[in-house]
Structures are given as C-alpha cells and as structure tokens.
Automatic annotation (TrEMBL):
Family of this protein: Belongs to the AB hydrolase superfamily. MetX family.
Organism: Crenobacter luteus
A GO molecular-function descriptor: homoserine O-succinyltransferase activity
Reactions accelerated catalytically: L-homoserine + succinyl-CoA = O-succinyl-L-homoserine + CoA
Gene3D superfamilies referenced in this protein's UniProt entry, alphabetically: 1.10.1740.110, alpha/beta hydrolase
EC number(s) per entry: 2.3.1.46
Assembly and oligomerization: Homodimer.
Protein name listed in UniProt: Homoserine O-succinyltransferase
Localization annotation: Cytoplasm
InterPro entries according to UniProt: AB_hydrolase_1, AB_hydrolase_fold, HAT_MetX-like
Amino acid sequence: MSTTTPRSVGLVRAQTAVFESPLALECGTALPAYQLQFETYGTLNAAKSNAVLICHALSGHHHVAGRYSDADKYPGWWDNMVGPGKPIDTERFFVIGVNNLGGCHGSTGPSSINPDTGKPWGSAFPVVTVNDWVKAQARLADRLGIDTFAAVIGGSLGGMQALQWSIDYPERVKNALVIASAPKLSAQNIAFNDVARQAILTDPDFFGGDFYEHGAIPRRGLRLARMLGHITYLSDDGMGAKFGRMLKSGEYQYGFDVEFEIESYLRYQGDKFSDSFDANTYLLMTKALDYFDPAKPFGGDLVKAVSGTSANFLVVSFDSDWRFSPGRSREIVDALVAAGKRVQYAQIASGHGHDAFLMMDHPYHELMHAFLNRVHEEVNR
C-alpha cells in the first residue's frame, strides 16, 4: 500500500483534443471533425506504461479530481478515489478522465455547433453507443502516445466501458476494473430509462430536441428525469436512515407542496441537475445504457464475448445496489471464469445503494488500494 498521505491533486485544468478525421458510428453514420474534453493527473512514465483511463457514468464527465480554482466549492466527481496516496494514486499512475462524445461538458455533443448548418446539432446529433465511446477514447490514447493502459476503470456505465475496452482492444488493457455494473440492462432498467426520457421528450420546452434555437431549456423534464434516476441510485435503507419520514415543518400541511425532507432533497437534486446538464445528452446517455450488450455480436453468448480478452479483472458490486444488483456483476464473473480468465470479485456491504461506487466506504477503498498496488508492481517490473 502507498505510504503517501492521501491528498488532493490540487488545481487542474481541462484540455481539448480536436480530431479532424470522421468517426464511423455504430448507428451507421459518421461524426465529422469532433473534439474530446479531458483532464490528466500525474506523470506519464518514460515507457508510457502507467496510464489509467477513468470512464464516467451517465451524468459524469472529464473532471474526475481536483479543483479548477481555490474558490470551487466541490472537487471532481471521484476526488475521494483519485489523488496522491489514494487508491488511484497519481504519484504512481498517469490518470486520464474523458468527457464522452454526446456529452455537455466540452466534448462534441448536441449543444455543439454542427459545421453543416452553423447551428447547434440538437436533434440531428447521432445516437452514440459504448462501442463508439471506446473507439473515440482509443483515438485519444493514440494522440497521447499510449499503446497500453495499465488499467481501465469505471463504475456503472463507466464499468460497461471498461468491459467493452477489454473486448474491443484486448492487447491495450492490462487490467479492467468493472464496478457496480452489468453485462446488459434488465427490462426494469430499460423501463426506468424510458420513463425518464419521456419526461424530457414531453416537456413543451423540448421543441423536439432543438430547444437551443428557442432560447429554452426543458427544465421540468430534466428535473423529473433526475428525480426518478436519483431514487434508483439510493437504497431503501439508506434513504430511510437519512430522511425517514421527517417533515420540514413538523406537521402535516394537507397539501401538495414539499412536506417531507425526502421530497425537498429530490427537488433540490432535480433543480441542480437541470441547471447543469443538457437534455439531449441525457437522452443519448440513457440510450447508450439501453443498447449496451457486448454478447449480442456473439449470438448472446457472454462467454464467447469475453473469450478474447487478456486483462486481469476486478469486478465489484454492492449489496444494497438494486439498480445493478450483485447478481448482474456475478454474470460477468461467471462468464470470465468459464472463459478461463483471471478475475477477482468482491461484494461490498454498503448502505449507499448504486451510488456506493462513488462513496468513501473503507472496505471498498481498501480493496481498490490492494488491487491497484499490484497493478503498480506490474508496471514497475
């Protein structure tokens, strides 16, 4: 284990990589010149063998750790995991965070200008998939001179990308960490995503996806989508412990405004999200989730899908995660074992539900430390 006292990576800055050649997409079209917003932390070694790619989840982005200024209230979304002395130790690894295509934090997406029209892409932006993101990330790795990643890591939708990386580029991934993820969505999860999308699609301010030209934001739809999603990221026990049936005023008001603390919390989350996230990006991200199925090209056989991988795998689940339950992670593990691959699996006790992969639960962080210590030893052999 690292003996460095855990601390922040400090002040960071975003970078932009512009790609002039088109990117052929799984949907059958091609994206012309595009850009990816990314951040790096740590130093790439002379052999370029210590690079770690962090793949973000649905509402994530490239800002993984640190702050842009001393005045920033919050650090990057995985600051508790990435930094000197932390499990993903930036004094050992060169860490890369990327905002995926279709995003709304600097990479080319629906709010970007379509060069053919001079207007925001809006509804014309093509549907992108996990496979497309992995292909774009590989191009970024090429740009940075990285042939092989010491590890590709992600939670939830990010874990799906880590798994897809190991399948699509087996020679470029030494270790794949697939956290709180699944080999494909269940019908229930697809249903949750569709309800969230319908909230956006039926918002009168959505304008068929071209709300930019109307100076509008489908705020109501985004709020409802986030509120619904947030419920599924938490556990029943966790919500009960934090909020219970607490009332804001202490007494029933016999109306339909906010009365319970949990209502206040969800509305706050919805309001905050609608101020910072793009509605079209939300639609794209949830569709990428729905479409993810690496076994599909192999006749639905996940064992065949992972048979060509060469990475060491760490698969992690959380007992209170009902959105991507431990059983879904075990499907990945069982397929890897059946294919004769090297895999370690851990089910962590946590009250945080699906969001546990973002939290600082001690057993979880100790597990990540231990696995990545071994990765560091591999890099330095």
